[in-house]
Amino acid sequence: MKSIALIVVLFISSVFVGNAQTNLKAGTWTASLTRADGHNIPIQFLVAYKKGKQEIYVVNGSERLKTDAPVLEGDSMIIRMPVFESYFKVKSTATQLKGNWIKGGSIKDLIMPFEANLSQNLRIATKSTSQNLSGKWKIEFTKADQSKRTAIGNLLQKGNVLSGSVLTPTGDYRFMSGLVNAGSFTLSTFDGIHALLFEGKIKADSISGQFYSSASPAETFTAVKDEKVTLTAPLTSVKEGSDGKLAFTYLDLDGKEVSLQSDRYKGKVVVIQLMGSWCPNCMDEMAFLSDYYSKNKSRGVEVIALAYELTTDKDRSRKSLQRFQKQFNVEYPILNTGVTVGDKERTEKTLPQLTEIKVFPTSIILDKKGVIQEINTAFYGPGTGAYYTAYKNKFEKTINALVAAK
């Protein structure tokens, strides 16, 4: 009887695991998040096998975000995004995933229904079009309460395929992609934090439609082409009467004290990165700064990241920041300020020498004497094309001048 019971247990276990398999068929997958209003935000996946090992990527135009290897949790499969507190919990077969996308929040998690299916026909336009949306667009969003906000659409169209990004005064929507059909278009992205979709109609000299962001209320938008359009970023500056020097001491991710006043930073050009592990533009800036630091630290350049997290839970914050550190091989200190991004007194509690910190990321550049020379609140990442190139050129020019100064 014991042997029969054992066989039954093994059989049940095999069925249980089989219903939550992690081996997916290679190829392109179409996926979507379903909002409460019934609209679906599209996501693209790519499943590949390299040397027998499965790799899953989220595809946003030219970007490939490699997820963590899927793991089993009971009868579900967990697929974690590489950096953020964001994951899919799904029931799976070789050709279908169905469950939820879960994103960590400051008070409660965001949960949205999710489904993905194997498909070889991603983003195929159904109708040809002579319309071309390439160029810069001046965008005006209107929220449900009728308040307005502005942005720039920096778009490139090749055939029916649309790509580019949208820039706001406080950051950008990273790599976006979509399609142009006769008289209409879509543009979307998903990176684990951003889950965005534009659906619009094309007129002779304008575009308009709906904008969807995760589970937030939909906004309407209108846009006209304007190659000279600009944005003004919210400013943070040195307080009047301050000597332009900062002072702080915080613990790094290994629990060691790091002080800006230590010998390590004396006589060097120092970049202070204000960031958070919840912030997609911070991810892009950290990728840039990590690479820059590894190539330039021998020149007398240092970088320190000051993190403003979602909660005051130190263990949660450390784990999230360690994912950033690992993903980008960050060699410079990442310090958790212990002050949340939602704290209205975050500036006074951490950097009282400054006026209000309004944007994440914000970078502060100190000269060899420790005096603030620049505060940059207008970082635009690699998805923005020429804007990113301009940012890098300006940053490197500033650092080079400060390093050369006696």
Characterization of the model:
- 18% of the residues lie in helices and 40% in strands.
- The chain contains five helices and 25 strands.
- It has three domains: 15-118, Lipocalin; 135-225, Quinohemoprotein amine dehydrogenase alpha subunit, domain 2 (Lipocalin, Beta Barrel), CATH 2.40.128.120; 249-404, Glutaredoxin (3-Layer(aba) Sandwich).
- A hairpin with a 6-residue loop joins strand 8 and strand 9.
- The protein has helices at 2-18, 280-296, 314-327, 346-350, 386-404, and strands at 27-34, 40-50, 53-60, 63-66, 71-73, 76-80, 86-92, 96-103, 110-118, 135-142, 148-158, 161-168, 171-172, 176-181, 184-190, 195-202, 206-213, 219-225, 249-251, 257-259, 269-275, 301-307, 334-336, 362-366, 372-376.
- The N and C termini lie far apart (86 Å).
- It has 406 residues and is α+β, with helices and mostly antiparallel strands.
- It has a nine-stranded antiparallel β-sheet, with no helix packed on it. An eight-stranded antiparallel β-barrel has the order 10-11-12-14-15-16-17-18. The protein has a five-stranded mixed β-sheet with strand order 23-22-21-24-25.
Strand content: 35-45%
Order of helices and strands: HEEEEEEEEEEEEEEEEEEEEEHEHEHEEH
The stretches of 5 or more residues where confidence is low (pLDDT under 50) are 1-19
Q: Can you tell me the number of structural domains? A: 3
CATH C-level name of the largest domain: Alpha Beta
User: Looking at this structure, what is the CATH superfamily of the largest domain?
Assistant: Glutaredoxin
- Main sheet: strands, sense, barrel: 9 strands, antiparallel
Nearest-integer average pLDDT: 93
Shape: globular
Helix content: 10-25%
Give me the Rg, rounded.
24 Å
Structural class computed from helices and strand pairing: alpha+beta
Distance between the termini: 86 Å
- According to DSSP, the number of beta strands is 25
